[in-house]
Design brief:
Length: 583
Amino acid sequence: MTAEISSDPWATLDEILGVEPVAEVEEGIGPVAFYGRCSTEDNQDPETSHGWQLGNASKFVGPLGGEVVAEFFDVGQSRSVPWERRTDASRLLAALKRPDRGWNAVVVGEGTRCWFGNQFSLIAPRFAAYGVELWVPELGGKFDARNPSHKMLMSVLGGMSESERQHVQARVRAAMDAQVINEGRHQGGRAPYGYKVVDGGQHPNPRKAAEGYRLRVLVIDEPAAEVVRRIFSGYMAGLGDRAIANGLNRDGVPCPSARRPEQNTHRLADGWQGSTVRSILENPRYTGYAIFGRWTKQEALLDPDDVAAGHVVRFRRSTPDRIVRSRKPAHPEIISVEDFTQAQLLRRSKSAGGLRTARKTERSARPVKQSYLFRGRIRCAICGRKMEGSPRKHAMYYRCPARTLAPGSPSLATHPGAVYLREDTIRDAVNEWFAELFRRDHVDETVAALVASQDGARRKAVGRDAAEHRLTKAEAEIRRFQAAIAAGVDPMALVEVINTAQAERAAAQAEINNIPAPNLMEAAEVYARLDSLGDVPATLKRGSRERLAELYAGTDLQVLYEPGDSTAKISMRVNSVRVRGGT
């Protein structure tokens, strides 16, 4: 019996074969934007991570007529950071408001890399408000807010992303603990004062050894080690932290940041402080044993009243159960275990006996909390230090006392006995400047000034100077060693130092090659940032200390006070762009 063939032969053949044809897409997705993310916790090369995520996204939307026309990819951003605080994610959110953006859909390569915890539920309504679709591979299509299964699955993906991050952190920490306990391995970072890091031979991990990685070990830096012994000896003889620091400053002993400025670019290198001596006295690594985990990263809410703002990382002392020690000595000792223990017992007895003076006790018992509008935002132009709040009966002041400068500091030559700046004086000047900047008919000029101020960032990436200095120094050392060999020095005697110099040269060159492009913002993004500050003129008019402090923090206000001519340079920054003013 011959079956009749309908007017559409394919329909009959599909029926015979049991094939359900896919309905033709009348209109493709069209142009889409791609978003991805890669952080240090992924242990991946950013270029590779970008490649496979973009490939997944393109394969997902390509058959449906989608074409990626814009890319947003965050590098070095943890998935726990909200989108508003990620560099490219915030650019993407700002672009939603632009009618000329050129795309009406966003696709991701992997949902768990882009959203963490409840982030998706906070972000998706913003895309829907601007008519932008979200295409997620784990959903098999675009997100449908009316589909309860989609909402449940995205919530599960957010939980999976959070769980994956925690598992990675736990595995890495467990592996590092085991390396310290069993091998006494140096886990990186700056070497303690008194030590230096050198090449320790082939890396024990075969894969890393094949890629050229070398094991790094600590050896004694004898001149600095002698200072460490002097500190412990002075303390055991009854000197306090400040007395020891003053003695070192009088004798012209370089402080740690002055001895190794390339490792302490965040320090002023202006002499020994009591806190520096204290950190040396409390560091158990001088006993020759590897100690790991004394400080830990903890995530604290950026704003306890706004959980959606996410967390920030703070370093705090670990609890004793989180600290591990090697089973045997891992590097040469500078202080014996017995002497170090005696020093700790002495410190404990002093703290129990009365380090808290009557004045500190009285101050700590006050129930009233003083608020400071410019806390941490005013610096002295002479010494570069932050000025501290100094409340008086009639007004609030900020001061910079010369007596707290280290003896021998160059700033002492020109620094007055005490520099004072009245709060209401600088507050009125700042508010007047802000009122001008945020005036309705002046906002466009403010945005233009902020965008134009990025020219400096375009010309120079952050950190390049330090890396180029290290590269030049390493190449000079290699040439010196080569000249020594040519002069007759045994090459075998210079193997370790040459390897160290070559490793430093390679590391510096790699850092130069991988310095990221400066984070530049477009005018639309700046407008979005300014909108997030709220009604600035109304805030200035009301004059509430709490709202003013929030405004100053939101604009990253900075004041540099020049006491000589009683002038202050004021600047504000929105993300990476800055505008300056003065009084």
